[in-house]
Amino acid sequence: MEIPPKSPDESEKSPQSKEMLASNTASTLCISSRSESVWTSASRSKWDIYHKPVIVVSVGAAVFLFGMVITSLSCIQTKNKNVYKMCGPAFLSLGLMLFVCGLVWIPIIRKKQKQRQKSQFLQTLKSFFFNR
Question: Which of 5, 50, 81, 94 pairs with 68 at a CA distance of 20 to 30 A?
Fold first, then answer.
């Protein structure tokens, strides 16, 4: 029978490895911070703000149109008619769902932008009055 090799205890680890572990986790936490926009004051363009919902709306419209084509093929084609009848409405509903989700996402982003502007304004007012 073989005996597995012993793993070094905490006391046997070198202090350099402990420092490296601590520095790696600290840098990982700083890098993975999701609230970078709080720390940077650079204004973002409209495309930077709205590119995700615009892409979702575009893809939704394209899938919806593809579903319309597939559904209309079920009326015209006699071959594979059942396939067109099943796939057409599926693409129609998926495209409509993406389209509506993207359209709803835009006002939500607008509302968040207004709230962020208000909170920044209130922070400056608070610092002006209380730091005198």
Answer: 50
Contact of 89 with 29, CB cutoff 8 Å: no
What is the tally of structural domains in the chain?
A: 1
Q: Which two structure tokens, joined as six digits, stand for 101?
A: 């989700």
99 contacts 57 by C-beta, under 8 angstroms? yes
Output the pTM of the full model: 0.59
- For residue 78, the 8-state DSSP code is S
Give residue 36's pLDDT.
47
Amino acid at 6: K
* Nearest Cα residue to 106 out of 58, 62, 65, 36: 58
In a domain, 28, yes or no: no
Q: What is the pLDDT of residue 104?
A: 96
Gap between the Cα atoms of 84 and 111, Å rounded: 41
Q: What's the DSSP call for residue 9?
A: P
Tens of pLDDT along 1-45? 556 666 555 555 555 555 555 555 554 544 544 444 444 556 788
Q: In which element (H, E) is residue 118 found?
A: helix 81-130
61 domain residue, yes or no = no
